[in-house]
Amino acid sequence: MGAFSISVEAQHEPVYDFNAYKESAISVGYLYSFGEPHSKSFHLLDFRFEKSRFGGRHPNFINWSSGVILSANTTELLFAPVVGSRISYGGIVTGIDLFYLTNTEEGTLRLAPVLGFGAHKVQIAIQPHIRISNKSFEPISRGHFVINMKLFSLKKQTLH
């Protein structure tokens, strides 16, 4: 008769992190500008410094950011200093950005509400533009689709 053996291992319960954190980070984003008044679509890059708070029992975050948006496929170089804020609860992201889009000769101030999905590391959203000043200067379309992700953390600390 042969030897018969059964090996039993304990099942490990998943470990959840319910801590809250405060973080400074660098993020990068891709903006696809579409819609009126152009038939051409535009591609832009978004680089930001972010200050965030996130974590807890339910997925949520709030952040403040500043940075620059650069054009990738326009006939002339466009850039836009930008400041913004995002808040998320349960995967729904809302927020607002304020940016001044310029080609160094003229510019336009735009307010862009944010509505999308995501968490503190990645967000996907749509942003219609509200033109505040110089409404005749329209080097890109009046809205964009955004994919934003955290590149790396500069400083992260646990909140008590």
Descriptive key words:
single chain; 160 residues; mainly beta; Porin; 9 strands; 0% helix; elongated
Describe this structure in words.
With 160 residues, the protein is mainly beta. It has one domain (20-155): Porin. The protein is 0% helix and 62% strand. It contains no helices and nine strands. The protein has strands at residues 20-33, 42-55, 60-71, 79-89, 92-102, 107-118, 122-128, 130-131, 143-159. It has an eight-stranded antiparallel beta barrel. The protein is elongated. The termini are far apart.
How is this fold's topology laid out?
Elements: E1 20-33, E2 42-55, E3 60-71, E4 79-89, E5 92-102, E6 107-118, E7 122-128, E8 130-131, E9 143-159
Antiparallel strand pairs: 1-2, 1-9, 2-3, 3-4, 4-5, 5-6, 6-7, 6-8, 7-9
Q: Strand-and-helix sequence, N→C?
A: EEEEEEEEE
CATH fold call: Porin
Total domain units: 1
Strand content: over 45%
- Average predicted confidence as pLDDT: 90
**Total number of beta strands:** 9
For the largest beta-sheet, the strand count, sense and barrel status come to: 8 strands, antiparallel, barrel
The CATH class assignment is Mainly Beta
Quick description:
The chain is mostly beta strands and 160 residues long. The chain is 0% helix and 62% strand.
